[in-house]
TrEMBL record:
Gene3D superfamilies: E3 ubiquitin-protein ligase SopA (2.160.20.80). Pfam families: Pentapeptide, Pentapeptide_3, Pentapeptide_4. This is Pentapeptide repeat-containing protein. It comes from the Bacteria.
């Protein structure tokens, strides 16, 4: 006689939830458990490998240490459950949800999930190494030492997470929102992060060396001593960002937007900045020697004590721009516009721009 099996059969027959059932180390590998609802069930260390849990609903259940490797989870929902140290390796699922669950030490290596959500869950020391996630969200979850090594994320939301101590080596994240997350002093060098949204994130001295940041959004972010050397950041947005002592040596920043950004002591030596836009930006003590701003814009920008020596300003708009105590030695200014009416002659020193 198997009381749990009887409870499942009865619930299936009557269309009711399985309630208050208990079993330790229950073996249900490969079982058909789709469309069932479970309330307050205690099933620690259950063996649910390759089980079909499609469209099942689990509420206030204890599944700590359960093995769900290879389980079918399409449409499944786990609400207020204890799921610490569970194994979900190689899961393939869409439209699954985990809400207000404790999931410390859970293992998701190799899983592929689409349109799935972890909302307000405890994911301390959870392992998502080598996972594939598409249109998934981790909003409001508690994370510490989260492992995202070699993970592949597309159109996901990792908002409000603590990722300062996360393992991110080999991460590929395309069109991922990190709004409100903590990435302070992280090492993101060499990662692939195009079209990501870091709106308002405080990075501190995060390392972006060699990282793909194409069209990535840093709107309102704070970057102190961050390193962007050799980063691929064409079309990146630094609108209203605060950048202090950041390094952009040899970075690719074509068509990047620094509108209303505040930059202090930043180094852009050797950076590619053609068609970049600096409208209303404030630059102080910055080094931009040898940079070509061709076809860019500095409308109403204010630059103080900055080095523009040997820069190229071909067809750059400078409407209302002010350059105070800046170095323009050897700068090429042909066809650079100071105002709508005034055209600077080729090779003319630009120091006179302060009077604009």
């Amino acid at each position: 006689m198997n009381p749990l099996r009887d409870a499942i059969d009865r619930a299936t027959r009557l269309g009711r939830p399985v309630q208050d059932a208990t079993a330790s180390q229950w073996s249900a590998a490969g079982s058909q458990l789709a469309d069932l609802t479970w309330h307050r069930c205690g099933l620690p260390a259950a063996d649910l490998r390759d089980a079909d849990l499609s469209n099942s609903r689990w509420v206030q259940c204890d599944l700590r240490g359960a093995d769900l490797r290879g389980a079918k989870l399409d449409g499944a929902a786990f609400i207020d459950c204890q799921l610490d140290h569970t194994q979900w390796n190689d899961a393939r699922t869409t439209n699954a949800a985990w809400v207000k669950c404790t999931m410390a030490g859970s293992d998701w290596r190799g899983a592929c999930l689409e349109v799935s959500n972890w909302l307000q869950c405890g994911l301390q020391q959870a392992c998502f190494a080598a996972v594939g996630l598409k249109r998934c969200a981790f909003a409001g979850s508690i994370t510490a030492q989260l492992d995202l090594t070699d993970a592949r994320l597309l159109q996901c939301a990792l908002t409000g997470l603590n990722l300062a101590d996360a393992l991110l080596g080999g991460l590929q994240a395309d069109t991922v929102a990190f709004i409100g997350s903590n990435l302070l002093n992280q090492k993101l060098a060499g990662l692939v992060l195009p079209r990501c949204n870091f709106d308002g994130v405080d990075f501190g001295s995060t390392d972006f060396s060699g990282t793909d940041l194409t069209a990535t959004n840093f709107h309102g972010s704070r970057l102190d001593q961050a390193c962007f050397n050799q980063a691929q950041a064409g079309h990146a947005l630094f609108l209203e960002a605060q950048l202090n002592a950041c390094r952009f040596t040899d970075s690719q920043l074509q068509s990047a937007l620094f509108v209303r950004a505040v930059l202090n002591g930043c180094d852009f030596s050797g950076a590619a900045l053609a068609q970049s836009v600096w409208d209303h930006a404030r630059l102080t003590d910055c080094d931009l020697h040898g940079v070509h701003f061709d076809y860019g814009r500095f409308d109403h920008a204010r630059c103080n004590r900055s080095n523009f020596s040997h820069c190229g300003f071909d067809r750059v708009r400078l409407h209302g721009a002010v350059f105070d105590d800046c170095d323009f030695t050897g700068a090429r200014t042909a066809l650079a516009y100071q105002t709508d009416q005034a055209l600077l002659a080729a090779e003319q020193p630009v120091l006179s721009l302060e009077s604009a």
